[in-house]
Each structure stands twice: as structure tokens, then as C-alpha cells.
Amino acid sequence: NPFTTNTQFMFEHNLPGQVLDIQVRIFTVSGKLVKSITTEAISDGNRVNKINWDGKDDFGGDLARGVYLYKIKASPIESDNISASESEFEKLVILK
Fold it and tell me: Which residues share a beta bridge with 88?
């Protein structure tokens, strides 16, 4: 961050060894949701790496240069007693 053509999201968590349902949501600064990335990951430790994003919106269009906000939400897939954890808003910058 900043990036021009693609970037990767990485985050730390407290659910080692579990299969996680991960959602990355990217918003304009006015709050409009422009991209949702949903994936699953198994983490040996307390870090998830390499959630790739090509800088495009949900319809495959290029996003304009500027500042965007994102949130990451992770929840264990096979656990009834552990709730999802969601990050605060973070900033990212597209320099295309």
C-alpha cells in the first residue's frame, strides 16, 4: 500500500490451526461498497497471508485512483462457540 495494479491483504488473528472464512470488504471514502473478496484459509500460526486483489470492483471495472477503506472479517468455519472478529477500517491507496 499504495499500489498500482494489485495488492495483497495480510492480517494476524488468534485462531491458529482453524479453517477461517475470510471476507475483505473495500469501500469508497463515502461508504459505498465497491468490492467484496471472500475466501477460506487454514493458518498454521496467527497470520493469514496472500489474499490477492487486482484493484477492480465487483463488476470487473477498474477503480479510480484515490483513497479507499477496507475491513477484514474472519470467523472459524467449524466452531459454534467462537464468534467472528472484524477489523477496524483501514486505508489503502490506488495510484493508477
Answer: none
Cell numbers for 89, please give them: 477500517
Q: What is the mean pLDDT of residues 42-46?
A: 82
Closest CA to 64 of 8, 4, 23: 4
CB 84 within 8 A of CB 73: yes
Cα gap 56→11, rounded to integer Å: 21
Question: Whole-model pTM?
Answer: 0.87
Three cell numbers, residue 37 = 473478496
Going by C-beta distance under 8 Å and a sequence separation of 6 or more, which residues neighbour residue 94?
Answer: 2, 3, 4, 55, 63, 64, 65, 66, 68
Distance of alpha carbon 34 from alpha carbon 94, whole angstroms: 13
Q: Would the pLDDT of 83 be above 80?
A: no
Q: How many CA atoms lie within 13 A of 41 on its CB side?
A: 26
Joined together, the cell numbers standing for residue 38 give: 471472500
